[in-house]
Specification:
The protein folds into three domains: 1-79, no CATH class; 88-216, 3-Layer(aba) Sandwich (Cytidine Deaminase, domain 2), CATH 3.40.140; 244-418, Cytidine Deaminase, domain 2. By secondary structure, the protein is α+β, with helices and mostly antiparallel strands. The protein has helices at residues 2-9, 101-114, 140-150, 152-155, 168-175, 189-195, 267-280, 306-330, 334-342, 352-360, 380-386, 402-412; strands at 19-24, 27-33, 36-39, 45-48, 63-67, 69-72, 75-78, 92-94, 122-127, 130-136, 158-162, 179-184, 202-205, 221-225, 231-235, 248-249, 251-254, 257-260, 288-292, 295-300, 369-372, 392-395, 415-418. The longest helix has 25 residues, at 306-330. The strands form seven sheets. A six-stranded mixed β-sheet has the order 8-13-12-11-9-10, sandwiched between helices. Strands 16-23-22-21-19-20 form a six-stranded mixed β-sheet, sandwiched between helices.
């Protein structure tokens, strides 16, 4: 095991070229490899790229699009304002353990969510390119705190991305647990000193995070490599949902009969629906995202069946809500308390009141809305959510059985809106 522990700490040598070109028809794009000057163990400066790829035995390199443009029919794609690929030494307040591929793709996933939430202070905590907690609030400290306690278990070792200046109070909250990366548009001087106390933490300043409202959703090129070395080329999606005016009440006409959702969403539900939808586009499919009062209450990620995504999200919600209550009351994680009870070191009665609150609040889900990145093929996913207090749904629509999902909502007094756009992410 000592060899793999050493591999985790080693910057793997890559042999990728300094420049990379990509030709599409008569157009040619140029990409330049990103290197950073960092001190080695002897204190001497040397140039290094990514630590490694997905795993410590996979060489990897980061490239920035630096030249050329593509003309596709009447669309012209150009290198835009750099985000993650443009990170230079000046952006790293602290390199920490030096970034690997997953550290930066986590940041990229966080930016992709925050670009849809520019109007309020927002925080995203990510693991493996998926959010485990997202929140908006009046202050960035409150947003981070709410995101953290929405899934304190998964937040351990995560990547934190925020869209407002990170103040000292937020820095102290970040420093109270283990994280791999923190990214903000700016930092208060005191917050930098606090975060530097965590020597392995990568601290990144990315000013564009505070200007995402101006960044836009211009199409970009997406390349997916296949097992045989082939490529799938596609354009990125341009979101059609920009506000409540773009939503439509759920309706479905079947054999001449039009089925309509009876209850219109309330103002707070619409707000949460838009937040949940913005997050859902950044979660691996099949996904569902549940939100109440601007914070995620459950996230179902990467399931092969939609009802399974709902049920998994619900199961996780109950555990994570229980853990948050235990941590606030006893200052220890849920699993530590349960282990001490099993060993006879604490009384099982200490959990009774907490378990009663978890049940009464449906694992914190009661009053939440649910966003689904694809339609519900059957009503089972809707029913599974309604059983745990979900009051509203936002989904693309388009299923042959939409009328059944509408009927499920009407029977429970819930509401549903369609976006008329699927937002799968693979």
């Amino acid at each position: 095991m000592s060899s793999i522990r050493k591999a985790y700490r080693t910057i793997l040598q890559d042999f990728f070229p300094e420049k990379m070109t990509l030709s599409l028809g008569e157009d040619e794009l140029t990409f330049t490899k990103r290197l950073w000057s960092i001190p080695n163990e002897a204190g001497e400066m040397e140039e290094k790229g990514l630590r490694y790829g997905d795993n410590p035995d996979q060489p990897a390199a980061l490239y920035q699009w630096t030249g050329g443009e593509i003309k596709l029919n009447d669309l012209t794609l150009r290198a835009g304002r750099p985000l993650i690929s443009g990170l230079s030494e000046k952006h790293f307040i602290q390199f920490g353990k030096h970034p690997g591929k997953t550290n930066l793709t986590d940041v990229n996933s966080g930016v992709s969510i925050l670009i849809n939430l520019p109007d309020m202070p927002a925080a995203v905590i990510l693991k493996h390119n998926n959010p485990c907690g997202v929140a908006v609030a009046e202050t960035i400290h409150e947003a981070y705190d709410r995101a953290y306690f929405s899934d304190r278990i998964a937040a351990m070792g995560g990547c934190i991305v925020v869209n407002r200046t990170l103040d000292a109070a937020t820095a102290r909250a970040v420093a109270s647990s283990y994280s791999e990366v923190v990214v903000a548009p700016a930092y208060e001087p005191e917050s930098i000193e606090i975060l530097k106390g965590m020597k392995n933490l990568r601290v990144i300043q990315l000013p564009v995070l505070g200007e995402l409202a101006d960044y836009g959703h211009d199409p970009r090129l997406i390349l997916t490599t296949l097992r045989d070395g082939g490529l799938v080329v596609e354009l990125s999606q341009v979101p059609r949902i920009q506000g409540a005016q773009d939503l439509t009440a759920a309706t479905h006409t079947v054999r001449g009969v039009t089925h309509r959702v009876k209850r219109s969403p309330e103002e707070g539900e619409i707000r949460d629906m838009l937040i949940a939808w913005a997050i859902a586009s950044g979660v691996t499919s099949n996904s569902v995202v549940m939100v109440r009062d601007g914070v995620t209450t459950a996230i179902g990620t990467g399931e092969q069946d939609r009802v399974g995504a709902v049920k998994l999200a619900v199961q996780k919600a109950y555990t994570k809500y229980k853990d948050a209550l235990v941590y606030h009351k006893f200052g220890v994680p849920l699993f530590d308390l349960e282990r001490e009870i099993a060993l006879g070191k604490r009384s099982a009665g200490e959990l009774v009141a907490i378990e009663e609150e978890v049940a009464a609040r449906c694992g914190g889900l009661k009053g939440s809305v649910l966003a689904s990145d694809g339609f519900f093929p059957f009503r089972d996913g809707v029913d599974a959510a309604l059983e745990h207090g979900i009051t509203g749904f936002i989904q693309p629509g388009g299923s042959l059985r939409d009328y059944e999902s509408i009927a499920a909502c009407n029977g429970a007094g819930a509401t549903m809106v369609f976006t008329n756009q699927r937002v799968f992410r693979h």
